[in-house]
What we know:
By secondary structure, the chain is mainly β. It has one domain: 3 Solenoid (Pectate Lyase C-like). Helix content is 8%, strand content 28%. Strands 2, 3, 5, 7, 8, 9, 10 and 11 form an eight-stranded parallel beta sheet that branches. A two-stranded parallel ribbon has the order 1-12. Strands 4-6 form a two-stranded parallel ribbon. It has helices at 30-40, 213-219, and strands spanning 2-3, 43-45, 48-50, 53-55, 63-70, 73-75, 83-90, 103-110, 123-130, 143-150, 163-170, 210-211. The chain contains two helices and twelve strands, in the order βαβββββββββββα. The model has no long low-confidence stretch (mean pLDDT 93).
Amino acid sequence: MKTENKKEGKEIKIAGPQIREEALAEPSDPLEALLEAKEEEEELTGLLLRGIQAAGCDFSGIRLKGVVLENCRFSSCRFSAGSLTDLRVRACDFSYCDFTAAYFSRCRLESVKGVGIRAAESRMADQRWTDCNFRYGNFHGSKIRYLAVRDCDLSESFFTACQWKEMEIRNTSLRGASLTNTPLKGLDLSDCAIEGIIVSDPPWELRGLTVDLYQAAALAALLGLRMKE
C-alpha cells in the first residue's frame, strides 16, 4: 500500500459514445418504443428518449445502441442480460433496477441515481460516471475495463470478486463498500472517502493501492498495526 499526497500520471483514455445527438429521432411515446423493442427482440437505435416513467417493467434482454436517455425514472425494472452500447444517460433514476449480466460499452452517465441497483456479473467497457449515486449497488463478479468515476456516491456498494483494468476513481465516497476478493492494485483513492471499507483478512486487496497519510493511518487496523501516540 502506497501513500501519496496528490494524483499522479495521466488520465485514462476512455472511448465516448458514438452518437450525433442532432440526428436523433424522438418518439412520441418513448416507453412504448422500449416495450415494443423488447417484445419484438429488435435493437433500438438512434433515439432520444425523454421523460419516461416506468415501474416494475421487464426490459430484460433489451438492446440499445446510440440512444440518449434524459430525465427518465425507472423503478424496480429489469434490464438483465441487456446490451447497452453508445449511450448517454442524463438525470435519470434507475433505483432498485436489475442489470444482472448486462453488457455496457461506451456509456456516459451524468447525474444518474441508481440506489440499490443490481448489476452483478455484468461486463463494462469504456464507462464514465459523473455525479452519480449508486449507493448499496451490487456489482459482484463484474468485469470492468476503462472506467472513470468522478464525484459519485458508491457507499456501502458491493464490488466483490470483480475483475477490473484501467480504472480511475476521484472525489468519490466508498464508505462501507465491500471490496473482498477484488485487487485494488494501481488504484489511487487518495481523494476518496474510504472509511469502513470491507476487505479480506488478511487484507491482500490493499496491495499496490495508493492512499494519503490519513487514510493509511485509518487502514492500519486492517493490517494488524497499532498506532502509538
